[in-house]
Amino acid sequence: MGFIMSEITQDKPGKKILLLGNEAITRGAIEAGVAVATTYPGTPASEIADSFSAIAREATKEHKDPGFYFEYATNEKVALEVAAAASFCGLRAITCMKHVGLNVASDTFMTYMYVGCRGGHLIVSADDPSCHSSQNEQDNRYYALFGSAPMLEPATAAEAKEMAKIGFDISEQLKLPLLFRTTTRLSHSRGAVTLGTITKGKRKGVFTKDPMLVTVPATARAMHPVLLKKLEEAEKISEKSPFNEIITIGRPKDVGIVASGVSYTYAKEMAEVLGLNVHILKLGMTHPIPRNMCEDFITSHSTLIMVEGLEPILEDQFKKLAYDISSKVKILGKSTGHFSRLYEYTPDIVADAFSKIFKVKNPFPKPVTSSIKVPRRPPSLCPGCPHRATYYAVKKAAPKDAVYPTDIGCYTLGKEPPLEIADVLLCMGSNAGMACGFAVSTDQKIISFMGDSTFFHAGIPPIVDAVHHNHDVVITVLDNRTTAMTGHQPHPGTAMDGMGRSAKLIKVEDVVKGCGVQHIEIVDPNNIKDTIAAFKRAIEYKGTSVVVSKSPCILLEVQRKRKAGEDIVLYQINQGICKRCKTCITRFGCPALYFAEDGSVHIDPAQCNGCGNCVQVCPFGAISAEVS
Amino acid sequence: MGKTISIVLTGVGGQGVITAANILGKAAVKANVNVYVSEIHGMAQRGGAVVCTVRMGDVSSPLLPSGTADVLVSTEPVEALRNICYVNKKTKVITDITPVIPFTVAVGGEQYPKLEDIYKEIKVHAQLFTVDANEIAKKAGAVITKNSVMLGALAASDVLPFTPKILLETILEDIPEKYKEINKKAFQGGMDVIKKH
Questions:
Q1: Which domain holds residue B120?
Q2: Nearest CA to A428 among A42, A26, A23?
Q3: CB A102 within 8 A of CB A125
Q4: CATH number of A386-561
Q5: Tell me, what's the ipTM?
Q6: Is the model's pLDDT at A3 over the cut of 50?
Q7: How many domains does chain B have?
Q8: At a CB cut-off of 8 Å and minimum separation 6, what does A151 contact?
Q9: Looking at residue B170, which CATH number applies to its domain?
Q10: Chain B within 8 Å of A369 (Cβ-Cβ)?
């Protein structure tokens, strides 16, 4: 079965196309003949797996084999285990996740390194410096050091494709899973990529038994030295890797720059613009670093400038190397205050640091600022979002001092006014775990929220905890039938999988019932009155209650209606009836409603998605369907 | 160093800013020009502010230093102002004139500035070109062609290292046959506005 044609899968070696960093990784894996790809969606990693999914869905539609198996797994840990098993059968595998996903998969990750892999296995971690869409900006390069994994870090989309392809060879050669680390700026930057040849990999392998795969203590003790030995081999690969190279800018004397990832592109361009005379040691294989190459670089320079976003990982390693070889090299970086451990680097940050270090003028003008205040435009729940209706109902049903633990998804946006219904959030699934803790620590009512995808990902164990200990909590599952925030991926509660094949739909309420929850409410949040009543009953119930608030994501619903040729009825305000009480705006907060300059309230037809919930919210009956 | 071109595209999530940046990038590849495009996904999709950068020529980085944009194209007036840090006196700021009021104005008591104040402020820092993209798109045949209007305006600003024709061809590649003609008209409409300035 051949590959189906799409932008990413076109079999035209030598052709140059524009690809997103994430798409380039998918292409690299396809060129390497990957057989199994798994993920749990998360920005900024989502498009790697979404590309696999799009290819697979198209193939399914045409009754073809896409050349690989792909799945959106229940969570990152399961995703890593599914792919690890494929590798144990000798197949090439890739697992993609956002940085915090690797925390979830870390239990698997750490011991997987001990036993190693068979088929090449890339574990992609997309980090998010500046927390563009994440709850922290942890630097997952530490996982490479922590778990003793070889690591590659691309600087451009073109390099991402090459590295992904060669990464499988390195992983296979070492029999070690490889950590492929990107950042938001790489994942979400486009660049020209020259297509290579697509290798048709094996689709099925054979599992050959080996007692050393069973990590009882005796095995683990025996495998740890094997892992360290593999790392020594990895260092030899790193010494010869074309991804580690020295670039000359101007006429270098004794100052060198060490850079990796996207930060390298800033370092190179700013060194050129500022007219510096430097060598840049560009590191692409950043674990293990090529010791000899780095020692030579230290010896041949009197000063080194370390340009790496987030943590001083290369900086610390270079300091160790300098100590080992008794070098007096000056190392400028985070510890000297020239660079920060915070946030994403930019050309401005790098230019500013260089101009101070080299005492040259920063050629860029000081950024101008607006003398008039610009209103903030944070993201918000969409017009017609069913979560808004649920939240509105909860606020009507709950006492004022109720505590609202929330979770990761669109619904976190309930934090914003006017709903302000998000009190604490740590990570996927944390809403329900914390709900249990609050229940034993305060007499306030506890009402927690999580989405359906989050429920399957990490929400079930804390519900079991709540039932077992009879915690007095209301746990809400906002069941919008999709993984909305990351781009509407399917999950175990949908009837289709990531390859476009029909899949067993697992109902949230069935799982909850199986967990032993005695009080379950299933509501349609678009019926606000009934939803308020359901939450009142759940709050009154002594013990664990779960409310499943079921209504599809409005974006999918609008899409479905358009496809089916159904009318989307828009709503309007009858100015003769409207008393301008502002309930629809200041309490419900749908972004489609706004005040005109004269204080009258209107519905923007360009934004209204026709949910009609504002009709139920208006105390004066001033809102009705538009007469077309 | 050789010539570099830096373009900033801004607007509101859902307005097609990322698509426009992608089209520019594809056109550059077609014209055999070195190009990097940067975009931020995720939270921006839910009606938040969106910024994309497109850099062409002798560049390595997808991001540009402050004050170095050759053009700033905005599909919403206040978003042009939000990204004023990228401009200098020579920068051409091309903005659509139709505001999208953020919910912080209705709910949070923030103010949406008067359009003439926005324009006055932009003119202090850069060269301003306003485009009534809605009107031009409507005339061309459909409001949905708004982005073709804005790309037409960009093509007429004389900064792209390839011809308007290449850009138009790239736009039309992904558009169904029946909408090609109205998008051509919209693109031409955008070009005309800048030429008349």
A1: 4-133+160-174
A2: A42
A3: yes
A4: 3.40.50.970
A5: 0.96
A6: no
A7: 1
A8: A141, A144, A178, A179, A180, A181, A285, A286, A287
A9: 3.40.920.10
A10: yes
Chain B residue numbers with beta carbons less than 8 Å from the beta carbon of A184 are 40
Q: Tell me how crowded residue B129 is: count the other CB atoms within 10 A of its CB.
A: 20
In this prediction, residue A148 has a pLDDT band, given cuts at 50, 70 and 90, of very high
Side-chain half-sphere CA neighbours of B56 within 13 A: 23
Nearest chain A residue to B143 by CA: give it: A606
Q: What is the pLDDT along chain B (197 residues), one digit of tens a residue?
A: 679 999 999 999 889 999 999 999 999 999 999 999 999 765 556 788 999 999 999 999 999 999 999 999 999 999 999 999 999 999 999 999 999 988 889 887 899 999 999 999 999 999 999 999 999 999 999 999 999 999 999 999 999 999 999 999 999 998 999 999 999 999 999 999 999 98
Write out the DSSP string of A583-599: IIIIII--TTEEE-TTS
Give the pLDDT confidence of A536-560 residue by residue, as tens digits.
Answer: 999 999 999 999 999 999 999 999 9
Please count the helices (runs of H) and the strands (runs of E) in chain B: 8, 6
- The verdict on B5 touching A (C-beta cutoff 8 Å) is no
Fold match flag (A245-358 vs A386-561): yes
Residue A215 structure tokens: 């990590």
Give the C-alpha separation, A489 to A387, whole Å: 18
Instruction: Flag whether the pTM goes above 0.90.
Output: yes
Residue of B nearest to A588 (CA): B107
Q: Do A191 and B35 touch (CB under 8 A)?
A: yes
Nearest-by-Cβ selection for A368 from B29, B103, B125: B125
Distance CA B54, CA B31 (A): 15
In chain B, which residues have their Cβ closer than 8 Å to the Cβ of A605? none
- Does A16-240 carry CATH code 3.40.50.970? yes
DSSP per-residue letters across A28-97: HHHHTT--EEEE---TTTHHHHHHHHHHHHHHHHTT---SSEEEE-SSHHHHHHHHHHHHHTT--EEEEE
Check CB contact of A184 with chain B, cutoff 8 Å. yes
Measure B182 CA to nearest chain A CA, in Å.
21
Tokens linked to A238: 């790193």
Confidence of residue A628 (pLDDT cuts 50, 70, 90): low
Domain A245-358 fold is Rossmann fold (3.40.50)
Query: What pLDDT is stored for residue A2 in this prediction?
Result: 39
Do A585 and B106 lie within an 8 Å CB cutoff? yes
Answer whether A373 sits within 8 Å of B79, measured CB to CB: no
Nearest to B38 among A189, A351, A381 (CB): A189
Q: What is the residue whose two structure tokens read 């009534």?
A: B132
Contacts of A16 in chain B (CB under 8 A): 29
Annotated domain spans of chain A: 16-240, 245-358, 386-561, 567-625
pLDDT at A55 over 80: yes
Structure-token pair, residue A568? 């989307």
Give the pair of three-digit tokens for residue B62.
């997808």
Which of A132, A189, A352 has the most B C-beta neighbours within 10 Å, making it the best mutation to test the interface with B? Answer: A189
